[in-house]
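User: For a benchmark we're assembling, each entry needs the component sequences followed by a predicted structure for the full assembly. Here are entry 17's components. Please fill in the structure.
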Amino acid sequence: MNPVSPPPDPRLRFEPDALRLREFPRAFYRGDTTEIARALVGAWFARRFDSQWYGARLVETEAYLGIQDAAAHSYRGRRTPRVEPMYMDGGHLYVYFVYGMHHCANIVSRVAGIAEAVLLRAAEDPAAAHPKLLSGPGRFCAALGLTKAFSGEDLLDGGDLRLFRSGGSRPQIGVTPRIGVDYAGEARDWPLRFFDRDSAAVSGPARLRRKE
DNA sequence: CCTCAGATATGCT
DNA sequence: GCATATCTGAGGG
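Assistant: Structure for entry 17:
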């Protein structure tokens, strides 16, 4: 399945059971992609490795709206081996390699055949003690040891990857255009980036960490 | 805050 | 073959 994936950073060790976290049901992932991106801020992403759990609390996400979105890999219905997981049912993972050295992880949304997804841009370690550890999509994947080997994995099949609803109160959400999509024409300005305004782990320049 | 190099899988011609 | 990319770290102002 994922024979040679790097291990997660030990600082991410946590106990999902102790926190009484509950998983999102399949129906959640099949909903509106933009709403899902917003709802995932505050959720916990978790990976089991060597029978231990490692996790992070998401603090920054972006919605990618498929066929109509020039910033999405599935723009105009593009369907290649790399992008194939985006066409899966909601609740799968899409991981790709970019800029010759980084991986980025997305949660696939909507139903099979509709290729939309939510990019996981930043998160906090369980103790919120290392704000740079998962600050940015490349760092997020590096800290959790996520590579292309995980692309296409189901988050709801009882395997090593899971996503849990946040237990506590709703974070205060900020909204801005997405980062790194200047090539995408008018889609460049769509307000599809969501982040926790109170988190130190949000990526990007400060002006993009306070907006409204 | 901004600019730029780095390294290469991927997709298109 | 060739241009590009859902990024990051270093260096300058």
